[in-house]
Amino acid sequence: xxxxxxxxxxxxxxxxxxxxxxxxxxxxxxxxxxxxxxxxxxxxxxxxxxxxxxxxxxxxxxxxxxxxxxxxxxxxxxxxxxxxxxxxxxxxxxxxxxxxxxxxxxxxxxxxxxxxxxxxxxxxxxxxxxxxxxxxxxxxxxxxxxxxxxxxxxxxxxxxxxxxxxxxxxxxxxxxxxxxxxxxxxxxxxxxxxxxxxxxxxxxxxxxxxxxxxxxxxxxxxxxxxxxxxxxxxxxxxxxxxxxxxxxxxxxxxxxxxxxxxxxxxxxxxxxxxxxxxxxxxxxxxxxxxxxxxxxxxxxxxxxxxxxxxxxxxxxxxxxxxxxxxxxxxxxxxxxxxxxxxxxxxxxxxxxxx
Length: 354
What we know:
Blueprint: H1 3-41, H2 43-52, H3 58-91, H4 95-113, H5 117-154, H6 159-177, H7 180-190, H8 193-237, H9 245-257, H10 264-276, H11 280-305, H12 313-327, H13 331-353
């Protein structure tokens, strides 16, 4: 059999194992993986805390820090969900008014563009098409809204399983934090030596990659959150209400970290809505805030990452698309991360061979 057939079969088998593992094994093991990850995260801080405060034992410090991580995560998720729900509830009753404002804005653009040459005709054509779309949506949105609401409420059917997984995640974290080393050694003895060595290499590389990513993107997220908090605070002081600025800044900063998405996903539509609503100054301030945040990120991100983990945008985009198709919403995170880990392992093997 030619070598390239062997290579194709080898990597095909790896991909099949990866697909089956992520598709079927990972959802089952996810609560325990996350729980052990939290337990591993608190090991060093718990040891340092127990040394600084002799009255607290190492296990007690583990439990305290694990509780802090879990309750902090729950608080952040709760704030984000409340902000999204409140925003949706306040937006839905005003749909007719919003549609009328958008239609009026489109008609003004269409009327102003007439007789302004080729570009004006093109603009008027686009505005006319947008106006027809708005008329159709205005007449039919009541027919589609119940279907959208039913799909939204169907998400609540998955809450029992989600809560069960959350409980097992928390229990795994608490049970694992005090005896993390013993659990680690038990898993290592369970595997054959060769499989244990490969698994250890993959885990070490994955942990190093994830740690580097969390440090880098955590710092970027903190900077973005601070910029948004300052900008939205200035807008509030200037009389342009933006709601709960802490929650809004946190949600936008979280969206900014997601693959492909960014602050523009929220700030640009928000600015356009302000323009359509007649609040021009508020829209301009939002665009300025978006420009500042994007400029700072584009300047800092290459220096912070320093080429250690960054994938080429083409491969990152391909990973997001393929991951989404193969594994759903979770795939947009899993596939780029898997590509980064594979790249790190491949680089380490090449370095060892040389």
